[in-house]
Automatic annotation (TrEMBL):
Protein name: Small ribosomal subunit protein mS35 mitochondrial conserved domain-containing protein
Provenance organism: Cerrena zonata
Region (Disordered), start-end ranges: 14-40, 223-263
Compositionally biased tracts (Polar residues): 14-28
Domain Small ribosomal subunit protein mS35 mitochondrial conserved: 96-249
BP terms from Gene Ontology: mitochondrial translation
Coiled coil: none
Any GO MF annotation of the entry: structural constituent of ribosome
Amino acid sequence: MSFTRLCRPALRHASQSRPFHASASTSMPRAGPVDASNRRARLDDIISEEDLMEGVNQGDDTSAGGHIALRQMRQTLYYLRLIEHEMPRLVAYRKPFVPPTAANPLAVRSISYGGEEHPASRKRTVVVPVAHLPLQDKDAIHTFKLLAGPRWSPEPPRDAGVGPEEIGREHGYFKISCEDYPKGPMNLKWISDTLDRLIMEANNQKKKFADIPLDTRHLDAKARKAKKGGHAYGRGTTRPTLKDFPKEWLPASIPETQPTATP
């Protein structure tokens, strides 16, 4: 027998490699076959089929944009139903309009967003003609205008709710607003107290400001910002016309001379 034949069995046993983490079949017996019905029963105990299918698109749902459009349509339909069924009931609360008199010269303006929370809803604005305030004389009116500063204007503000034909325009208008406090009545109370203090200081006879002219720089800045002819330097508040030409600059009229007859 040759040496090769003797060594062949030993070499064959050594060449059979096995992974280092593997173990013999006798150390870990294989589990037997598992019944499919038992496995399904255990899964049903953990989660049901309805839970798996919940939220799954079955092909009959719309996109996100479609849901937004449907929500807007439902909101529009809600307000249309309010107009149809609830608005006629407001007729019972209708009151006739009574123009304000000299006893109630204040015009209070506020902003409402239909019950929704908004920072601008607490703001209150008051506009009042200076001629309707309880000021004693012309000196008190002049002092009040000085104290008002840029809050005074000769013309009513556009958002004041004051018509062009209302009386009391000879001394201009006073406008004041406040939004520092969290509630609207609190801001209105501050405006009322401030207006009372201005009137009291204007009626103080111990202080005279008749020699101090009015500061109209805020009016000039407003005219320049509007750019309607009064923004150019030296033009005032309106564009000049031929009526504004000084008459003293016109030459004296020269009498017409009669033509002399030539012989």
